[in-house]
């Protein structure tokens, strides 16, 4: 089956040009001018930007966490992603407490089974860092899992010691894997939380006081130094603030193999959004916490100058009003005690249009850098390129038809994820994905979902990937 996309403007990380794309089955066969192919189904893309499908490198579907489970499963979360122009994501497979890394991967395969509608991979997560688990790290490569998240935060739950972190860095380095770290000082945060609660400070806004930028910067600097000492590559997840980005800059200037991402929320949601009366601020309780517009400006600069290479979402969704109508408990679990609010924020569906509007429409980021941040760089860093992350001959035909003129008001009443609020409610954006193609098949077409449950493919990823 051949499909010919005509008259679009192709946007890759390197170029913007008018061209036609011929797809043969699941892959791109030819890119050229004025192509004419007998028997091919023709899709007219006049007025559209044709970009590689989004690659979201940081998601948590159906994740058990803080007394709840994320409400988006592999069907609803991936369906939302598809509407938003994302065709690949990498989810964190948390190992069971006291169990093995491979059990985590198996559990996540079970969650995904029969539900997937876009392509996906897994990161390991060293959430129970026994000596046996550290020994087990290299065996993840056999599972097609070549990156591993390690937490310096969430004391008593996922947090590891510096010794465990250091040993894991060495193991991962020798196996050609990439360590990813959640960098916050979990010990200090636990102390601050106790003190705030003792003082009767229980509302969601105190989440901000418990997660100050300086403790993110401290842990980022520590992680960068330990990685630099071992020579292991390191990718810092969800960088939220200037002070943490500066630690990454420091490591890169020393020649360490350090990379990092920020997430949509850190450029669009700020401390003042959380400082609202009542429980509403809980919607934006995530770790690290949201920061200030000044931090966001620094993050934009860091994305421009390659201190940071990726924008992800950290999509981890918990009902605002859970515990009723068959729903899991959600953000209401933290009423009267902010430390019990399940941490996380939605975004898998919103990432491309929110950031296009804020980055490309304002001239802060070129459309090519946008493609690099949203698709090409995560595909390269996590071993999926050039199958994913670009529009090129031989690549999977994962293509977003993006209408730069289409306007939209973001709302939970129209989004497609399984969550009762939208973190960006009411924002007006210009530029929307209108068709999403996965491996040559349209899975979203002008508001209609055409994906089939179980059609998403698990992606086995390469080792020894480039440090960008
Ligand atoms: O608040 C967050 N970030 N929730 C998801 C888990 C994590 O730390 O990434
Ligand atoms: Zn994290
Ligand atoms: Zn996360």
- Distance between the first and last residues' Cα: 36 Å
CATH fold-type name of the domain at 54-360: TIM Barrel
Q: What share of residues are in beta strands?
A: 15-25%
Count of individual helical segments: 13
CATH superfamily of the domain at 54-360: Metal-dependent hydrolases
CATH class of the domain at 54-360: Alpha Beta
Overall shape: it is globular
Fraction of helical residues: 25-40%
Low-confidence stretches: none
List the helices and strands and how they pair.
Elements: E1 2-11, E2 16-24, E3 27-32, E4 41-44, E5 49-52, E6 54-59, E7 64-65, E8 68-69, H1 74-83, E9 86-94, H2 101-112, E10 119-125, H3 131-136, E11 147-151, H4 162-174, E12 178-182, H5 186-198, H6 206-210, H7 213-230, E13 234-236, H8 242-253, E14 258-263, H9 264-268, H10 271-274, H11 293-304, E15 310-312, H12 351-360, H13 367-381, E16 399-409, E17 428-438, E18 441-445, E19 448-449
Parallel strand pairs: 1-4, 1-5, 6-9, 9-10, 10-11, 11-12, 12-13, 13-14, 14-15
Antiparallel strand pairs: 1-2, 2-3, 5-16, 7-8, 16-17, 17-18, 18-19
Helix pairs in contact: 4-7, 7-8
The structure holds N-(aminocarbonyl)-beta-alanine and zinc ion (2 copies).
């Amino acid at each position: 089956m051949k499909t010919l996309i005509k008259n679009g403007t192709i946007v890759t990380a390197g170029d913007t040009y008018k061209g036609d794309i011929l797809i043969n089955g699941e892959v791109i066969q030819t890119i050229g001018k004025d192509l004419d192919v007998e028997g091919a189904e023709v899709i007219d893309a006049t007025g559209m930007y044709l970009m590689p499908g989004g690659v979201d490198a940081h998601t948590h579907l159906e994740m058990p966490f803080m007394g709840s489970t994320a409400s988006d499963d592999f069907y609803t979360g991936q369906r939302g992603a598809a509407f938003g122009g994302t065709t690949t994501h990498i989810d964190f497979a948390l190992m069971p407490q006291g169990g093995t890394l491979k059990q985590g991967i198996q559990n996540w395969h079970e969650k995904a089974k029969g539900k997937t509608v876009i392509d996906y991979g897994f990161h390991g997560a060293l959430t129970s860092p026994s000596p046996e688990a550290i020994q087990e790290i290299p065996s993840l490569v056999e599972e097609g899992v070549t990156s591993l998240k390690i937490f310096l935060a969430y004391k008593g739950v996922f947090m590891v010691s510096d010794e465990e972190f250091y040993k894991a860095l060495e193991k991962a380095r020798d196996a050609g894997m990439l360590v990813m770290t959640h960098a916050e000082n979990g010990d200090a945060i636990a102390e601050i939380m106790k003190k705030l609660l003792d003082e009767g400070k229980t509302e969601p806004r105190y989440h901000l006081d418990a997660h100050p930028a300086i403790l993110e910067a401290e842990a980022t600097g520590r992680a960068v130094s330990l990685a630099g000492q071992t020579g292991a590559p390191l990718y810092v997840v969800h960088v939220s603030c200037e002070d943490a980005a500066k630690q990454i800059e420091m490591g890169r200037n020393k020649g360490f193999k350090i990379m990092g991402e920020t997430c949509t929320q850190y450029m669009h949601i700020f401390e003042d959004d959380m400082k609202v009366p009542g429980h509403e601020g809980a919607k934006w309780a995530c770790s690290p916490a949201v920061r200030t517009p000044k931090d966001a400006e620094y993050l934009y600069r860091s994305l421009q100058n390659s201190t940071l290479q990726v924008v992800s979402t950290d999509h981890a969704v918990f009902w605002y009003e859970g515990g009723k109508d068959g729903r899991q408990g959600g953000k209401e679990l933290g009423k009267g005690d902010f430390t019990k609010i399940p941490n996380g924020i939605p975004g898998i569906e919103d990432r491309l249009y929110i950031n296009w509007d804020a980055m490309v429409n304002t001239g802060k980021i070129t459309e090519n850098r946008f493609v690099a941040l949203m698709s090409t760089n995560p595909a390269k860093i996590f071993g999926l390129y050039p199958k994913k992350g670009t529009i090129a001959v031989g690549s999977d035909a994962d293509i977003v038809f993006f209408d730069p003129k289409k306007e939209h008001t973001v709302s939970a009443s129209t989004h497609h994820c399984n969550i009762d609020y939208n973190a960006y409610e009411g924002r007006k954006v210009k530029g929307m994905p209108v068709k999403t193609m996965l491996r040559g098949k349209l899975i979203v077409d002008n508001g209609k979902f055409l994906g089939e449950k179980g059609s998403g493919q698990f992606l086995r990823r390469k080792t020894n990937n480039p440090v960008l």
